[in-house]
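Table S4 entry, Aspartate aminotransferase.
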Amino acid sequence: MDFEFPERINRAVASLTMQIAQRAIELRAQDEDIVDFSVGEPDFPTPDNIKNAAIKAIELNLTKYTANTGILELRKAIADKLERDNGLSYSPDEIIVSNGAKQCVYNAIQALVGENDDVLIPAPYYVSYPEMVKLAGGNPVFINTSVESGFKLTPELLESSLTPKTKMLILCNPSNPTGSVFHESELNALKETFRKGNYLILTDEIYEKIIYDGIGFLSVASLGEEIKKRTILVNGHSKAYSMTGWRIGYAAAEREIIKAMAKVQSHSTSNASTVSQYAALEALKGPQESVEIMRKEFEKRRDFLFEELNSIEGIFTSKPEGAFYVFPDVSYYLGKKFKDKIIGDVFEFSLFLLNEARVVVVPGIAFGNQNCIRISFSTSMDRIAEGIKRIKNALELLV
Ligand SMILES: Cc1ncc(COP(=O)(O)O)c(C=O)c1O
């Protein structure tokens, strides 16, 4: 059959890291011991109280469709959370529950970005943002940030990127892949530029609960009523409660925006999984100790990994202050040779680490960066130590 895909599908690309993932699968199939530093989810089980709430929901036959935007109790609990943790006041009809934060971002982009609208995305970025913009017919416009400035967007960078075509700015705070976190002073410095023009701000705060060094988290929406009105706040349960597979995320914004997002969702997935919504309700209302236990463990691993990476010749890393990723600059090694073959870019560098060190990392190009690799520390301390040892040994083979 002669079939042509629509332009918006052709413009979006599938995951760039498939080749590395495929090679890792092949090696594992041969019983090779692989250290996996590519993990994008917490390596802890979902807490028991949350699992039990889901079991109870099933027993009570709470297994049918819910309201499109989610059960009212959960939206109320989310509103309480936003008030308690972020000092933000939203009513339940300014909140939508979706199948993960990812669907919230997707719904928002579908609902708010039109053909040829520009969407500003600071790079490095979370892989899906540009592709979601393309799927909506919009243009992703990248703002490059550097390792030297801790990969943070500055007022100058933002100001010089704004045009009358700018429809939206997407922020990821704390950031996947860099682990950078906006401090209160940095967000305050951006405030004036956030108020300019007529664009919306989508803030992905999914790693809110995984922050280190006692840094306080400030939501972009807390910068004042004017900014709150133009902000779509996205958060969810995947990372804070180790609930990636339950698929629960939520967005809070002006009522009209939530209505438009609900329209998109009503014609795609209807509501988020009913059982997961009851589990998510318990996550917000029940004991919170597990959140801090996980955070502390991640902080220990971050400290160890950061120190180890800094002891390697030529590797430059900004210290992650949140999430569970480090994003070291490895450009020192690009252009070096392994057995007469030049390592030309970070993709080849990552493939080299997999083949010679049996360590999986994600090349920065997947996130719009040519010099770095992403190392996830969502694996045990022993595996981190083993992986670093292997990386050090492999790098000695490069000339
Ligand atoms: C920045 C960012 N946003 C969204 C998501 C997706 O989260 P969810 O599981 O809630 O869809 C991820 C998952 O890795 C992420 O890193």
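The chain has two domains: 7-45+290-395, 63-285.
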